[in-house]
Write the structure tokens for this entry.
Amino acid sequence: MRLIDVHIHVGNRFEWTEPAKRLWMDTGPYVPAIFDNAGNQLPQQYGDAIKKEGVSGGILIPEYSPMTAGVMPFERAREIHKRHPEFIPVANINPNYHHDVFEAFEEQLEGGAKGLKIHPIHGLFYANDQRLYPLYAKCEQEGLPVMFHAGTSMFKGARMRYSDPYTFDDVISDFPEMKIILCHGGRGFWYHIAEFMVKRFEKVYIDISGLPPKNLLQYFPSMLKFSHKYLFGTDFPGVPGIKRNFDELQILVKDDAVMEKICFKNACELFGFWK
Ligand SMILES: [Zn+2]
């Protein structure tokens, strides 16, 4: 089966903060394979390490969160994309970092971004921040998917109030045609709200990255019934194993048609891989 990982982080190792490395990146086995001794990401090896796990395409996520995770600029995603065109970048914008959010977004779109990732709890702003509304309007109009980090973060400096689910509900209501992916499905304390949003709103999806696959049906009891709204992702490189997660998911799901949707088809339709 073909596999798409919609949640791959990029960046030089030294660009990540210490808590990010300790609490997340180092939980995976990939560090020695994807960075040189100075901590620069090795774009060829980065993609190779992911593909070795059976992945045929993916979404590359830069991040501008100086107070929590670090600044891993869009260029890092481009470096990998250049050598592995089947991995495509999304933009990342932080209204507390980018002076002119619209201009910064346009620049990243010109650089090849095929969507937008928003990280309220790391960037310390709300999902419904008015400064982001022109970006949402553009994404809605042009059919660009918007990924939101939805749920908690253990990184130092993260503030839980910025993951308030009802601020996401505002965005969903204000941009009903925008394709929205709730990354991690409300991890920590609002799985059931994220699940409700997926059931209730036509354009809302969940990516299962950063969650132990064996627990997914406890978090989202209707996942199999709504399998057209769930996406496989891993939070690479902070994942014990991409293939391992895929295998665990298969054991849980036990249905090839459902697996095909979650692991491949839904991502293809949303992001237009290989079009
Ligand atoms: Zn992530």
